[in-house]
Design goal:
This is Allophanate hydrolase. It holds the Pfam family Cupin_7. By secondary structure, the chain is mostly beta strands. It has a single domain, classed as Jelly Rolls (Sandwich). Helices cover 0% and strands 50% of the residues. It has no helices and eleven strands. Strands 1-2-3-10-5-8 form a six-stranded antiparallel beta sheet, with no helix packed on it. It has a five-stranded antiparallel beta sheet with strand order 7-6-9-4-11, with no helix packed on it. The radius of gyration is 13 Å and the shape is globular. The chain starts with 19 loop residues before the first strand and ends with a strand.
Length: 115
């Protein structure tokens, strides 16, 4: 099995993975870290009430919600939602209930404001 394979993510397979601190109230499990100009792929786990401050996307970002609800200024995204954030777009992200998302970034985001 390739190093980058994770089993049964949509059925809760992420629950057995190791997560590390990412931001206050948000942990990360790297599936593929950024290397040079290669995209990064990870799982983010938000505690209830956690947020990521306003940021700009320096590359395309793709999110698939695996559990809970993730929100931004455009709405709330539940299990199975796929969210695409275009290059140059800006938003903040939060989860009132807690959530787990699969995320792929072409490039790291640029934080614009700290909450």
């Amino acid at each position: 099995m390739p190093e980058t394979t994770r089993e049964s993510l949509t059925q809760g397979g992420w629950k057995t993975l190791d997560f590390e601190p990412f931001r206050d109230g948000v942990t990360i499990h790297w599936i593929k870290r950024f290397i040079d100009d290669q995209p990064g792929v990870a799982l983010l786990k938000y505690e209830a009430g956690a947020s990521v401050p306003r940021h700009r996307h320096e590359g395309l970002e793709t999110i698939l919600v695996l559990q809970g609800t993730q929100s931004d200024e455009s709405g709330d995204y539940g299990v199975g939602c796929c969210v695409i954030n275009a290059i140059g777009s800006e938003h903040s992200v939060w989860s009132d209930t807690g959530c787990v998302v699969l995320i792929q970034w072409d490039r790291p985001v640029r934080i614009l404001t700290e909450d």
